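New to this. Explain these tokens.
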Amino acid sequence: MLFWSFSFVWFKMANVFYRPITIVFLRLVIAVALLSLFLWLTGAFRRITIKKEDRKYFLLLGFLEPFLYFLGESFGLTYVSSTTGSVLISTIPVFAAIGAWLLFGEKLRLINYAGIILSFAGVLIFIINPDGSLSYSLHGLLLMLLAVLSAVGYNLTLKHLAGNYNPVFIVNVQNIIGLVLFLPLFLIFELDHFMGVQHTAESMTPIGLLAVFASCGAFILFAYSVRYLGVTRSNVFSNCIPVFTAIFAYLIIGELLTRQNLAGMVIVTAGLFLSQVNGRGKVFSKTEILTGKTA
């Protein structure tokens, strides 16, 4: 969650130099290269073959996430602050909990669901002004909503691949598909701008950090965590993302951190602890754990 929290700040830093599609395209190039190298060194490429009947599910995975997800998130972040964007994305655990119940039969105690609701209420505080109005751009909200719905659709599609494939292999394949889908958009809309940018360590560093820590490292850590905590409980930790992002955005890029933000952090954290009360959730296969924000 720390790595994913930083990703919103790193995107804002990269967006100073590059446009959204360029950022995502370069991020995917690096992530695919790293994950492919890992799978090759561990021999997974030689051991794993995609079954013919599963090809359509892999194509749908790649279309939903990273393609639609990153389109929504990246362009959404051009309209809203990194903190607000992270708050909207953090609503994914609420829908993931519903999906885990419907698809996997994962049930929690009433106090756990109360914690999820309380945590969600906490993130709402981030985008509600003192006068009761919502402090967001409508374009930004709709684009971030696209990202959330794409992640939910990704979760539902992933059910069909549960237990049959290595999770790192799945993410690498979907990133390759996403890379292919983003290539024509990059060449048509942003190649000229990319060629006109002076590429320096300052401009490329946040993209490298996005690829290594958000697209690779965060996923692997999250995958093993959910294996022991279950889908719903692990996804609730995503509500920590806006808390961490608000702090990092304030320290690194100077975004305002208000008393209202601090109050939201306290409520989010309280809900998080309530959601964790009394034991672990059901343990699933390594592929079933890929819910929420994984790319």
